[in-house]
Design a protein that fits this description.
The structure is a homodimer. Chain A is α/β, with parallel strands linked by helices and about 400 residues long. Chain A has helices spanning about 15-30, 50-60, 80-90, 105-115, 135-140, 190-200, 240-245, 265-280, 285-295, 295-320, 345-355, 385-395; strands spanning about 35, 100-105, 125-130, 145-150, 170-175, 205-210, 235-240, 250-255, 260, 265, 325-330, 335-340, 360, 360-365, 375-380. The first copy, chain A, has 2 domains: about 5-45 and about 300-395, Alpha-Beta Complex (Aspartate Aminotransferase, domain 1), CATH 3.90.1150.10; about 50-295, 3-Layer(aba) Sandwich (Aspartate Aminotransferase, domain 2). The first copy, chain A, has 12 helices and 15 strands. The interface between A and B is large, with 74 and 74 residues.
Amino acid sequence: MKINKNFLDLEESYLFSTVNKKTREFIASHPEADVIKLSIGDVTKPLCPAVIDAMHKAVDEMADEKTFRGYPPEQGYDFVRQKILENDYLARGIDLQLDEIFLSDGAKSDCGNIGDIFAADNTVAICDPVYPVYIDTNIMNGRKDKIMLMNCTEETGFLPEVPAAASKAPDIIYLCFPNNPTGAVASMEYLKKWVDYANAHHSLILYDSAYEAFITDPAIPKSIYEIDGAKTCAIELRSFSKTAGFTGVRCGYTVVPHKLVFDGTELNKLWFRRQSTKFNGVSYITQKAAEAVYSAEGQKQIQQNLSFYRENAKLIFEGVKAAGFKAFGGEHSPYVWLKIPQGFTSWSFFDELLAKCNVVGTPGSGFGKMGEGYLRLTGFGSRERTIEAIERIKKTFGK
Amino acid sequence: MKINKNFLDLEESYLFSTVNKKTREFIASHPEADVIKLSIGDVTKPLCPAVIDAMHKAVDEMADEKTFRGYPPEQGYDFVRQKILENDYLARGIDLQLDEIFLSDGAKSDCGNIGDIFAADNTVAICDPVYPVYIDTNIMNGRKDKIMLMNCTEETGFLPEVPAAASKAPDIIYLCFPNNPTGAVASMEYLKKWVDYANAHHSLILYDSAYEAFITDPAIPKSIYEIDGAKTCAIELRSFSKTAGFTGVRCGYTVVPHKLVFDGTELNKLWFRRQSTKFNGVSYITQKAAEAVYSAEGQKQIQQNLSFYRENAKLIFEGVKAAGFKAFGGEHSPYVWLKIPQGFTSWSFFDELLAKCNVVGTPGSGFGKMGEGYLRLTGFGSRERTIEAIERIKKTFGK
């Protein structure tokens, strides 16, 4: 038996384990220090009451022979897909069909598993810095030498540039807006360039909009399908994790329009076959929870949490600016991308911030080479601790 | 962008959709008929009270900031893996470590995804008849021409034979006991032959024991690791679906011992990397449900349901024997593998049974060529309907 040797090409990711180890060591040697973590990428607010009620009801249904549910449909129950269709698409003027929406146990799974339906020899364009799963799953699928990194720098507002006409077009293009880790958002005009490019070159865009719920400006697209022509070139990945605090509940969905045809084959059909064969659907209780997110109370309640995180991000953004730093993101995103002062690397500034302010961030270099010189701070903490962290940063670094 | 063309090699599986279509059509043209489905492969009893209580408590924890849980560990919380370790392994004299157990959203996902860590050019030995997922996932991974079917016939008690010494050894061997669809079980002596063979040829066994909870004879192994030497040649797949009625809740686990080393690499490390990268763990609520299966009340309650299904299977087995049929399985398994009379194919007998008795089975030919001449009946229905179906079969076919 031979292993998939592509796995040996993976680099071990030590980013968050090193962040945690350094933090633990600092606390051990400074037991009096009151350490605040602005490194956290996970939600901290509990599930909203509408979701909790729906889950209790669903649990009770599973206790009764008359209402018990066994194997769910692999693509999700219609009751939840219908809500997604109506609220996330039809309401925004995007016409989709129910069978173009595939419910799953989360965007991370979909983002990795979607690679199953593509040939191994496709070239893949991926941003730097980036969410590491895009890189690692492509390496696992044998595309190590097929990855084309797209530098995202301050000069272009951390937006990757559409390749020049002369260069060889990538087959698959990963885009994520609002972006993790930079917090950058994409305008209609900017995304239109990518959609036109993909259609012209018969490339496929994998559009990760896991953070779309943070967008408040109606002019900023939440879905790639708000762009004319996207249905013939883009798959969209969505998540309830940040939208409704479902990180511990596990639910997301992927949209694969019928109009996506490559090699004469509908990608929708391939993804349906992949999911029917290698996946068995999402827990009924989780699906009822997802449905409840779209109720009137659910929508109001999740907005309260989202506003809270947004306000934290804004406070961090304004706080570090007031302390004299350059910073990006912090609007339509839970992330602030802090430019660290000259003379520091991402890791040496991480140490400095921990030592001087007892505040933990995430070194930008952990997200790729182009992340060097930056630190990611997040709005997922409590208000009190977030304000306290900002005060310390201002006191230490402010002029 | 090029698609994964291996998908085009898949045959469309119409088994259950055709069963349902024919049943619907029969009901439409015979509105007076009282149709009984003994084709169902899904549980029908509600979740047991211990599990329901645990889920309600977990939902409440998710409603409170102090007890809310975000991203779960990708491999499962220790609290549930510890219970699995103690109850399913240590209690049976099998020594495993906690990090050899990987919790997941179900055995179907694991069974498909595990292929990611193997090279595409491995040969694969698969039983005929068989659960179609083994075949389809290997075709998706490009192993269409690498599949070696192992005929399972009445002559060998539906057990695949260990290959002769002279023939080329398969790299990967799929075994499933108690078997779906035949209901066959494997003895210690029989499994020992496979384990010795796999170790001698450096092959890997994928052991699907999703139905182990149906075994009542202490002499029949529930785990492949009850066999000496299995830790160096076997991965085991387990499920809470049939054990505890979790088909709608989605939870299973896979055991990958550290001693499994191929190409100088621990498979445990590869599977850990696969799951950490392409999976984000199981819902906290589901994990608390799985933990509750192992409580004293949980164990008692799931045994009541299992006994109920077992008794149904036994009644079907004895009933069809009394009606003059040859039959297999029906013990240590929810499945009865009915040998159909001469002159019928699986599908023509399906039609005959539906027309004469208004009873629905699953044609054996849907599970592979060697399933032709058989029909699968299952013990997952209600007692009353199961008895009624048997009475009709006896009346129609009995001598």
